[in-house]
Amino acid sequence: MRQFSLSWRWLAGMLLCLATVHVFAQEQEALQPGFEVVSAKTALVDDVVRLDALFDLRFSASLVDALQNGVLLNLVIEIEVIKERDYVWSTSIASLAQHYQISYLPLTKSYLLNNLNSQVEFQFPNLESLLAVVSVMQDFPLLDQSLLEEEGRYRGEIRIIVDRESFPVPLRLMSYFTGNWHLSSEWFAWPLLP
Fold it and tell me: How many other C-beta atoms can be found within 10 angstroms of the C-beta atom of residue 49?
């Protein structure tokens, strides 16, 4: 009976250890820096194709440190509208780029988000709230329906990147050799209109 009790305790202890390691590994993976397009969809509203997109943005500690030491970070959301063809290569009919600049204000210990396309600025008390706003693109006017052929098949593609070309030269060179400085999502594709 004692042998069975020890075996049962040992098995329960091992299962608990495995579960703990599994949860820890998932938490570590979730904390890894990176960008991801979680979803993207379009809808036709008043003859304009409008885009809703959701991003998962996790900055590396190096980028946050650089930002807090005066480096401006530029984010670019790149969007492509592609006409699909059966027998020849697909062709891009529209390309758009939404540019954002993030800066840190040491006097107020806050963050500034500047939409470089519209020159609209927003101030945030912390980086998390700023990233929460940038990670949601809602009702973005993508293109006019008149640019689409009625019988055509179209897809949209989107990604978000840190623009390393906007870094100061010493940091730009370093960004080519370390992944922590150049975060980029994969291209995410979806059918433009169902």
Answer: 22
DSSP H helices, the chain, are 2-31, 61-68, 127-134, 169-175
- Using a 10 angstrom Cβ sphere, with 0-12 exposed, 13-18 middle and 19 or more buried, the burial of residue 63 is buried
Can you name the residues that pair with 36 across neighbouring β-strands? 56
pLDDT digits (tens), the chain, 194 positions: 555 444 545 444 444 444 444 444 444 344 688 999 999 999 999 999 999 999 999 998 988 998 999 989 999 999 999 998 888 888 889 999 999 999 999 999 999 999 999 999 999 999 999 999 999 999 999 999 888 888 888 999 999 998 888 877 777 767 667 766 778 899 999 999 86
